[in-house]
């Protein structure tokens, strides 16, 4: 059986731009792409914490160290500058790989600067 698991996420990034008339995609600070392992042109799912909108697009490389998170094209209707978003990429693996697999979790501050990384999430309390 093949399983679709979380590969990487950038947690609570702040949208810096929403460019309606730019060719689609989401520009992400290149440093955050490298740290997370999300590749340029890879499909990403974006979850808008402010509005609840959930949508998919693809990642493009933004300037390293710029802090840019630019939601472009039609997706610009789903996020505005200042919104907090979670950007996720998923991958497929078999059950043997899944048994030992850990995602890359990237945490940023309000300026989209790396605060820390992790490979597991804390258990949710009841």
Automatic annotation (TrEMBL):
Residue ranges crossing the lipid bilayer per the database entry: none
InterPro entries named in the record: Asp_de-COase-like_dom_sf, Asp_decarbox
Coiled coil: none
Localization annotation: Cytoplasm
Cofactor requirement: pyruvate
MF GO annotations: aspartate 1-decarboxylase activity
Pathway named in the protein's UniProt entry: Cofactor biosynthesis; (R)-pantothenate biosynthesis; beta-alanine from L-aspartate: step 1/1
Transcription regulation in keyword set: no
SUPFAM superfamilies assigned to the protein according to its UniProt record, in alphabetical order: ADC-like
Keyword Cell inner membrane among record annotations: no
Purpose: Catalyzes the pyruvoyl-dependent decarboxylation of aspartate to produce beta-alanine.
Name of the protein in its database record: Aspartate 1-decarboxylase
Species this chain originates from: Lysobacter enzymogenes
Lineage: Bacteria, Pseudomonadati, Pseudomonadota, Gammaproteobacteria, Lysobacterales
Gene: panD
């Amino acid at each position: 059986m093949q399983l679709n698991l979380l590969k990487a996420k950038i947690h609570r990034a702040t949208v810096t731009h929403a460019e309606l008339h730019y060719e689609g995609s989401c520009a992400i600070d290149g440093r955050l792409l490298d740290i997370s392992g999300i590749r340029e042109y890879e499909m990403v799912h974006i979850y808008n914490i402010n509005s609840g909108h959930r949508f998919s697009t693809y990642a493009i490389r933004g300037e390293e160290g710029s802090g840019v998170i630019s939601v472009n094209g039609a997706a610009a209707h789903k996020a505005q500058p200042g919104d907090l978003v979670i950007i996720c990429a998923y991958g497929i693996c078999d059950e043997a790989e899944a048994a030992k697999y850990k995602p890359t979790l990237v945490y940023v501050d309000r300026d989209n600067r790396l605060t820390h990384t992790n490979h597991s999430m804390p258990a949710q309390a009841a």
